[in-house]
Write a structure and sequence with these properties.
Blueprint lengths: L1 H25 L1 H6 L8 H8 L3 H8 L3 E4 L2 E4 L2
Antiparallel strand pairs: 1-2
Length: about 80
């Protein structure tokens, strides 16, 4: 059971890393100037990563991201 738990945690972290990378690629301008946050949906990221929208929703739930312009809900 411990190995299955470890595998699930590693997979969750990998999914979150992929989602973050995809979001930050789209939000480069915001990360540079803090002013131009582009609209982005779970569907946009899901299509880009070929994973289900619910997977993305669960990955970013109750998570926050710290930027030079403040802390934002990752959602």
């Amino acid at each position: 059971r411990a190995l299955n738990l470890k595998k699930a945690i590693v997979q969750r972290n990998e999914t979150l890393r992929k989602v973050a990378k995809a979001v930050f690629e789209v939000q480069k301008e915001f990360l540079k100037n803090g002013k131009t946050l582009k609209p982005l949906s779970y569907q946009d990221i899901a299509e880009k990563l070929s994973i289900h929208e619910l997977t993305i929703s669960r990955a970013v739930k109750d998570k926050f991201v710290e930027t030079p312009y403040g802390i934002y809900p990752f959602k």
